[in-house]
Amino acid sequence: MNDTTFLMEFESLAMAAGDFDHEGHLRLAWILLSREPRLAACERFVRNLKAFAGHHGAHGKYHETLTFFFLNLLADRVEATEPAPDWASFRDANPDLCGDFRALVDGHYAPETIASEFARAHFVLPDRPAATVA
C-alpha cells in the first residue's frame, strides 16, 4: 500500500487495529513529517492516533512520552537527511527505529519513568545521563 493510501486508511479509521503496529506508528509519523512542518505534523499525528485508539476501544494505550519521543526522533532524522522517496527507503536508512524498540527507549529513559502514569499522560524529557536524541 502506498503512503497516501496508508494515511487515508488510518485517518478514516478504516485500518484494522492489528494492521497498525510499531512500524505503522513510525510510518504514519514519517508520512506526516515529510509533508508538513513539525508542529503541524505532530498535532495531526496525536489527534489521529487518539481517534484511532478510541475507535478501536484502546483509549488506555496512548502514551504521551513515547509518542513525542518517537515523533521528535523521526523529525530530527527527516530534517537531517535528504528526503527519502518512500517509507521503505527511510526505514532502511534508519534500521534502529524499527529494530529493538525497547532498547532504543531504554537508552533514553529509565524503565520506571516510562512505566509511570505521569509519563503516559504528559511528555517527560529523557532522563538517562548520556541520553541524546539523534
Structure overview:
The two termini are 29 Å apart. The longest helix is centred in the middle third of the chain and has 18 residues, at 38-55. The mean pLDDT is 91. 63% of the residues lie in helices and 0% in strands. The relative contact order is 0.13. Helix 2 (22-35) runs antiparallel to helix 3 and helix 2 (22-35) packs across helix 4. The chain has helices at residues 3-11, 22-35, 38-55, 64-80, 87-93, 95-98, 101-106, 111-115, 117-121. It has nine helices and no strands. The protein has 134 residues and is mostly helical.
How is the topology of this model organized?
Blueprint: H1 3-11, H2 22-35, H3 38-55, H4 64-80, H5 87-93, H6 95-98, H7 101-106, H8 111-115, H9 117-121
Helix pairs in contact: 2-3, 2-4
